[in-house]
Amino acid sequence: MNSTLRRATVIGCGPIGTSLALVLTRAGITVSLADPNPGKVTGAALAGAGTPLVRGAPPADVVVATP
């Protein structure tokens, strides 16, 4: 199987989710961020971990949920 990961959604922008999103972003993957706390999404986005998930965004190749 030959597949390419291009888009990921990370649900949970605490330390684990933000760290994972940063690694994915640095690997050239487009990352969308989601968290029940909008402030955490903003913080992760400001750290360069991705952009906030918006309605109508293209589907992700993978979705990761972190505690």
Profile the largest sheet.
4 strands, parallel
The radius of gyration computed from the alpha-carbon positions, rounded to a whole number of angstroms, is 11 Å
CATH hierarchy class name: Alpha Beta
Class from helix and strand fractions: alpha/beta
- Poorly predicted spans: none
Global morphology: globular
Oligomer: single chain
Give the rounded overall mean pLDDT. 95
| Spatial order of strands in the largest sheet | 3-2-1-4
Strand percentage, roughly? 15-25%
CATH fold description: Rossmann fold
Estimate the helix proportion, in percent.
Answer: 25-40%
- Going by CATH, what is the homologous superfamily? NAD(P)-binding Rossmann-like Domain
Overall number of structural domains: 1
Instruction: Spell out the helices and strands N to C.
Output: EHEHEE
The separation of the N and C termini measures 30 Å
Summed up, what is this model?
With 67 residues, the protein is α/β, with parallel strands linked by helices.
Which features would summarize this protein structure in a list?
4-stranded parallel beta sheet, 2 helices, 4 strands, Rossmann fold, alpha/beta
